[in-house]
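Dear Dr. V.,

Thank you for agreeing to look over these. As mentioned in my earlier message, I'm a first-year student in the group and I'm still getting used to reading structure tokens, so any feedback on how I've presented them would be very welcome. I ran two proteins. I've put each sequence directly above its structure. The first is here:
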Amino acid sequence: MNENAGKNQIGRKLGLYTHVPFCSTICDFCAFYQVQGDRKSVLSYLEGIERELELIDCDRRIDTFFWGGGTPSLLKAEDMDRLCRILVERFGVPLEEWTVEMAPSSVRSDKLEVLKNWGVTRVSMGAQSFDERLLDALGRQHNLKQIYRAYDLIREAEFRSVNLDLMFALPGQTNDELLSDFRAAIALEPDHISTYCLTFEEDTALFVKLSQGKVSIDEEKDRSYYELAWKTMADAGYDQYEVSNYAKPGHRCAHNVNTWRMNEWIGLGPSAAEQYAGKRESNLPDLKKWREALEIGKRGGVDMTEITAGLVLEDALIFGLRMNSGVDLSDLSNRFGGACVDDLRGKLESLVRVGHAENAGKRYFLTDEGRMVVDAIGAELIGFAEIG
């Protein structure tokens, strides 16, 4: 395997992920780094982003911007304007796509106007459910009325793409309730829908409830939920392009696709991860410590790993198989060296033999049965490539 391939051939596209850590409350299921931001913290964050950009050695145009969190829409319009200006002055408007995550309770017309004026093309709103009882079970701070009001405001602003996030396998949820959620989302006619199975992450309120026996995991029921999602979205004209993501033509999330294909991305803000300039690392998951490091000219600092061909190839396979288009051995061979192909083909053929994958020429993709166990397949593939 070409040992320089991991460093020299991953950068076909470049994304910029900006983590906005502020939340009004911590949802029961969320394990992302977040803080309740006062005015001082927000200003410190914005100043930190400016400082961090000064430390990044990059003269390339960015293909995609993505603001995640936290809750980026908690920023005031004036703070959104400043953050947009900071990024655009440094890199210009992204060439392909600019996504901002928003929560229904914090969507405002003045914020949307700022985002639209700076060139944001895609808004992703976390509805999670259209059932008030299930929203309460998740610890969400919005209600059904706020979802519809926020969606109307976003549509009125005429962004190129609008996504709705939904969650399933919620505590106490039935098939009928899930189908009702899907139908409510589809009725709004978003350009993209993401449906995520609830996971129990450590250090979350839901994980504590699981350990106490207050909630449980039902794998058979989860399987039926996946099947219901796939069928319902297909019937409504949404193309599934990844295990949990569906889009109308021309509305796939380019930032996520570039990440799943193991291209490059820069991470800004506390806890943001990046794969860039021959290494992977994450920023400190602490607003104060992140700022202190920047003041002495340091970024990253957590889990730094030198990129090798084996490391990136392995992840390109694992994440590529999550996509309906699968992985192409010719493409992987061109990126990482032909010596990897025979061993890789053997791994993929073993998935074909057990009915978890199919192939068309040199392209391999998971069957529905394989997508049901995609996480287990990924775990089995860890370590197949020599990482060194």
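The second protein is here, in the same arrangement:
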Amino acid sequence: MIQRIQTIWLFLASLCTFLTLKFPFYSGSTLELPHVELNGQFSIPLMILTVISGTTGAISIFLFKNRKLQMRVSIVALLLQIGCIALYINAIKQFTTGTFALWSVLSLLVVIFYIMAIMGISKDQKLIKSLNRLR
């Protein structure tokens, strides 16, 4: 399991996803509050989507024996993370002033890590198919 590089990519994606619950994506002020940090706990839908995305990434690590299912679960986790980013961008519209935090890079890293994991799973799938042809 740990010998495969996609396990590391999936672990890093999961870790970064759960870190977005704590660290801000955007900091600024709204009409009601002078200083608000937009993170994964900003709203209930965003928090649910973030937790599901991180959990599916973690579950995907243990599906190494079934590569097709691992690929599907990783793609779903990638789509959920893209949905999280869309919710972040939608929530930024509520702010009157503010700036992106340095931690906003985490959300983009999650997408990159999921893509790298999917590429690794695909590479393993092709290798197994080629080995089956040699038998």
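From my reading of the second output: The mean pLDDT is 88. Residues 25 and 46 are 12 Å apart (CA to CA). Does that match how you would interpret it?

Kind regards,
E.
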